[in-house]
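Hi C.,

You asked whether I'd gotten around to modeling the 331-residue construct. I have! Everything is below, sequence then structure, no commentary in between.
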Amino acid sequence: MADVAADRVPVVKPAGAWRGYALPLIIFVLFALIPFVGQFTAESYLLSLVTRVMIFSIAALSLDLLVGYGALVSFGHAAFMGIGAYAVGILASHGFGDALVSLPVALAASALFAWLTGIVCLRTRGVYFIMITLAFGQMAFFTASSLAPYGGDDGLTLQERSTIAGLDLLSSDRALYYVTLLCLIAVYVFCRSLVTSRFGRVFRGARENATRMTTLGYDVYRYQLVAYVIAGMIAGLSGFLLANATNFVAPAYMSWQRSGELLIMIILGGIGSLNGAIVGTAAFLLLEEWLAGFTEHWKMIFGPFLVLVVVFVPGGLLGISRWVMRRLRGG
């Protein structure tokens, strides 16, 4: 009864609690200003690069929902992203290029795959969960590779971007940029609301002690399955956007290497932090772009850097920023 009463007591946030909204607000404002900066430089290149950052940030947010808040380390998460992209490509090849058709199909296909695989994956724990998600991810990868009518290993080129109610609203790079930004903001707000909700408290509680949550009467498996399906749908959304941004879909979108990159992004930013997922994605892709200008073996430089971050700063880049702020406040 005490727990029920506690749930009904309104929570008053202290003034300092609102500081947590400063960083995401700064990030989204910076994203919104990029097109204006692009007017004074290579606009097409800049918009393409930052659009890619935002698309992968959406996928990273969905993965961080599982890894950071549920301790469910998925090594096949890119499969959902690839399914969302292939939904766009396959439908477009059959003349269904409107987003009002392809987007719901992309979300539904990703959710269905997440539900079917999640039923099996969530019966396992630890390294077994990692390996079985990897197996399902590779199954999706090889399935896409065998789709000869849709390009097979070579992938499928889209002739044009998705229309919206028959209008070419996404034909402009700037329009696609702002649509992607709106999707990123919506996904961030949704994920933040989810993890702080009653559902999120149970989901996070299962991460700490699943046995205790089960003893309290919660069906942990069901909560985890719902979270897994939600994460799959969000990743499917990123796949839909990626297909439109590149006008191309390929089995490589589903590879285990891509899943590994998504994990690196959230580790780099700081696991269990939605802000960190965006910061880590931006850092990963921008560093990749910068280092690739020096050598094609940029991963040989980036790998040791990541190891140093994990060993000495477990909180990722956000952990470094918090440490610097504490030092500044402490004098």
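If it helps when you're writing up: The longest strand covers residues 156-157.

Thanks,
B.
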